[in-house]
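Dig into this one:

. . .
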Amino acid sequence: MKNFLLKSMMAVAVTTTLFSCNKDEAKVAPTVTIKSDTGYVSNTATVVAGSTIRYGATIVSNDDKLKTVEVTASIGGAQASTVVTIATEAKTYNLDTTYSVGNTETTIVLTIKATDDNGESTSKSITLNVKKAAGAINQYTATLLGGQSNANTGSYYATASNSVYTQSTAPANSAAIDIIYYYGSNNKATLVAPSDATVGGGSGNLTLATILTKKNATQFAASGLTAAQFDAITDDAQITAITPSSPSTISKDLALDNVILFKTEAGKLGLIKVANLKTGDTGTITIDVKVQK
């Protein structure tokens, strides 16, 4: 009797162990491998606005058959929306498709999610940093501006046409003038917007802008670029990449090889390099300019 009970208990234990192993057996989620072949975008990439990219993945079920392959897109951190859902009963699926990134500079996260018949799933993502294509620029060299008391060289400058105006010709062209140059006792070599107070008359100010009917509010900021970096620029990509710190309507105490970022009231970005400088209110400043067309 003892032996019979012992054998029965052992049989129950073995049966329970086997049942427990089957019940708790781990399910294995699908494998998603993003394609990184030539011509495919994978992981994190910078792409041009308005373009269409190719991406894909090799998806393998490690347990049961696949059920769905879903691609979602989160644009600019917004809630993800479904791009495509594919139903499949295969063990292996080859995702190979394209995506149009749109014309807005933003970040898009494409997520590929594979789910099998057991409900197990795996997700992999591709991050697209969408940037606008580089734009064309106008490049001007050796543009000469005169100080406020210079009788021969104008102090008023239009960046769109590279035109310099004197006090007699400036009033008729005030809408085009973005920058005024003067050499002050405190500010030294200075570029200002026509809207800046230092040229608007009043106590202690110059009157250079009082003759203008339109006073454009150009903004200036340090560019952080060297003269050599300025010289190497051929489009606006490096200009638009600059994040200005404390923009102002005045850029003062200028010196040789300084590179200044500016933005016109019309919204055009550009850079000015000081190529030469002759001090004094009758002196001159020579500038090289690169500005968006």
User: Anything to note?
Assistant: Residues 4-21 have pLDDT under 50 and may be disordered. The chain has two domains: 31-131, 137-292. The longest helix spans residues 2-24.
